[in-house]
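## Example record

The block below lists the input lines for one assembly entry, exactly as stored, with component labels intact.
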Amino acid sequence: GQNIDQPTEMTATEGAIVQINCTYQTSGFNGLFWYQQHAGEAPTFLSYNVLDGLEEKGRFSSFLSRSKGYSYLLLKELQMKDSASYLCAVRDLGGSYIPTFGRGTSLIVHP
Amino acid sequence: EAQVTQNPRYLITVTGKKLTVTCSQNMNHEYMSWYRQDPGLGLRQIYYSMNVEVTDKGDVPEGYKVSRKEKRNFPLILESPSPNQTSLYFCASSLLETSNTEAFFGQGTRLTVV
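Predicted structure tokens for the full assembly:
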């Protein structure tokens, strides 16, 4: 199984940059996902990393280091609508392709 | 439109009264799963299914049942609900591949057991 750790809460200012970290321990890594979840709504897919490096998608980027068991989600030019919970999910090589979710990081963006 | 549909969205029930939350997807996904989400605990998997007639327990299966008689449907059954099953429930589906297989989530069902 996996052990996934994320900060519980972060705050940032509109227009700024914020980095949300995720560390994990797994017996066999097979991909890491980031999801965004607004309060009371369904999680929605943001990014997927399976190889080391940075994946950029507009204002959002996700980085992975498999040797360090570490990922981060970088949000640039923060907007008020980015206030949400960000979930890190890790999939291992157990054969089932099922991701395990971390507890999520609640990001609050202030004006 | 590709989607996962859960019903009902909100439900208040009494202890011991059997209920079913339905989940349906129109993307021909093999994999479907149920999660519950509680404050401070994140998404915890209840049951999942790899394909028709194949179901397995997740991390918190006690008090729940599921069935997968058709590929598109994956209902969650609470035979005798208790107050500790008050939670926000999500159904999800995805393809079963080794590449980027993002999960698609339903809108959620907020269940209160009194």
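The interface with chain A takes residues 31, 33, 35, 40-45, 48, 50, 88, 90, 96-98, 100-108, 110 of chain B (CB under 8 Å). The longest strand of chain B covers residues 42-51.
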